[in-house]
Amino acid sequence: MYIIPAIDILDQKVVRLREGDYNQKTVYDTSLEETIERYQSNGTEFVHIIDLNGAKGDFSNQSYVLDVIRRTDMKIQYGGGIRSVDKVKELLDGGIQRIIVGTQAITNPSFLPELSKSVCQKDHCSDHVVVAIDVLDEVIKYSGWKESSPIKLMDYVDRCLELGFFRFLSTDIDKDGKLGGTGMDLYKKLMDHSPFIKLIASGGISSMDDVRALAELKVESCVIGKAIFEGLINIEDIQDWNLKSLISI
User: Fold this and answer.
1) pLDDT digits (tens, 9 = 90+) for 208-218
2) Which of 51, 134, 176, 210 is catalytic?
3) Tens digit of pLDDT for each residue in 131-183?
4) 176 is catalytic
């Protein structure tokens, strides 16, 4: 299992939200450029970047974020306001390794089929696209976690799998930003339902013990944000974990 450090950007500032609430944000005294450089200098391969403005349909932040991303050698997993297949193509052509899709995949029934057919030719969908499943009490949330979907969680997973999307980023909203432990029950249900999915766990990870517990579930990777900024998990621990994970493959 690989650890991916996370950076959330709101109004060009590095922040973390609590339970996805834009009114409950912590702003950190560092820039996106500085944070990426910090991770890169410690040997981290991937970084997870979310444009929180874009996630709620405000694209004023996007040009800034993408400009910074284009100037880094890091592999980027990027999300926030991806509203069209053309935007996915543009971002992939621009060198971003993985694009996270969420709201559009849920609200537009033709989006994932078109993406599967025209962008990733189904067999390679999971190499380029990560499907976000943000969950609160087993209800899928979207549009910056403000709206609820009537689609049942496992039905949605099955639909994505049929189209060739096997990599999922699942956030347990109830755990997110609280540093109180991660959503083990949710991730276990997802892995039990489809053991072959490539699951990226997100939300609430506050210690390396949480990381070890997730590794026992055999999730592919986990995203850690606030615990790094708050000093509960240090970059050296992440680097050591990732190096050992690569050796064990």
Assistant:
1) 999 999 999 99
2) 134
3) 999 998 888 988 777 788 999 999 999 999 999 999 999 998 877 666 667 88
4) no
- pTM for this structure? 0.91
SS3 content of the chain, % helix, strand, coil (to 5): 40, 30, 35
Per-residue confidence band for 249, with pLDDT thresholds at 50, 70 and 90: very low
Say which residue the tokens 């992440």 belong to. 238
Number of other CB atoms surrounding residue 235 within 10 Å: 15
Alpha helix segments (H runs only) across the chain: 32-41, 52-55, 62-70, 85-93, 103-107, 111-118, 125-128, 153-162, 184-193, 208-216, 226-229, 235-248
Spot the catalytic one: 8, 51, 172, 210. 8
pLDDT for the residue numbered 203: 85
- In what helix (H) or strand (E) does residue 17 lie, and over which residues does it extend? strand 13-18
Does the annotation count 237 as an active-site position?
no
Rounded Cα distance between 20 and 241, Å, is: 28
In contact, 74 and 44? CB cutoff 8 Å: yes
Q: What is the Cα–Cα distance from 6 to 165, expressed in whole angstroms? A: 22
